[in-house]
Amino acid sequence: MQKEKKKLxxxxxxxxxxxxxxxxxxxxxxxxxxxxxxxxxxxxxIFYVCGQGFIRLMQMLVVPLVFCSLVCGSSAxxxxxTLGKVGIKTLVFYLCTTALAISVALGLxxxxxxxxxxxxxxVQAGDATIxxxxxxxxxxxxxxxxxxxxxxxxxxxxxxxxxxxxxxxxLAKMGEKADVVSSFFAQFNDxxxxxxxxxxxxxxxxxxxxxxxxxxxxxxxAFIPMLKxxxxxxxxxxxxCLVVYMALLxxxxxxxxxxxxxxxxxxxxxxxxxxxxxxxxxxxxxxxTEKIGxxxxxSSFTIPLGATINMDGTAIxxxxxxxxxxxxxxxxxxxxxxxTVIATATLASIGTAGVPGVGLITLSMVxxxxxLPVEGIALIMGIDRILDMTRTAVNITGDAVxxxxxxxxxxxxxxxIFNSDSNSDDDE
Length: 428
Description:
mainly alpha
């Protein structure tokens, strides 16, 4: 009897679209002359509309899904003591991994010296955007929404998280008196998850378009003068993702890191192609629940929080960029300068929007803290898109590892789901 042909799962198709998009974009860049057809019709027309259209569809889901997930998660945990424990553990873990990430970046950059001997004239510079420094007091106050509806409309994740948690805790406290409202949020949450499944069906087209546009615009020529800088950033990201995270996962849970990476890899590739942590929230929650065994009441709380405050990949780029710029401009940074960078970049990651390119804007605050010229940011802008995609993948992996550890310690983790090979297959 003929063996039934296995149907390709969605995650496999997304990975194929990713590779094909990169190859197609590179071929367009080198084989097709610049002009109206390539640049206006294909790159800034078809690819731009399809790619950005898909990102907008994902962003459309984020606020209602995060809000409902957090309300349901908070009310499911119910006990404010337990919720407080989970929240503090998550926050401490995120801040520690961010500080670790910058330390890894600074250490590796000091060894490789990415800016030493670079001819600045060979690098194509862009226009750097300068971020306004926000005091720590204002950062804390900005978590409290003046108007919750305004916070939801603006997509201010910290404000959404706080308001949703308060609503969830009060729903749990009120019990049967608030059954109708609790049911509404639970059903609306299910509706948003169904909408996520629907939107994900067009993911291969969006991923192909986003990657193809990037490679067609950038090509490989822009990378050559900056190879040392790029290699240092990639090296630090790899150490953080494959060594630091996996060591923490094994130490705290004794789970198999290779199995974890295999199951979470499609989400990492999706984050790579979209370069936005926020758009990856629905897929991260779904994958952690269905394939890794994390309780949704934990993941629906820690993943949106991580997408808002846990920017380890961005912190790594900032650490390497600081050393790079200091060497290019011949400015010596001592131990005090490095400690200032670690503190500033860790605080700058809190409240940083999980959208493409925002790391470069907050980098101006880090540069200013140690007296580096902001013009240095313009040197790395040309090649930052590829780095941005990679660090987003690291950002969301850090969120997932933290979520798994917190769920494991809270006894909200299903080992059978994690160990099951059937769950590592692609969804049909």
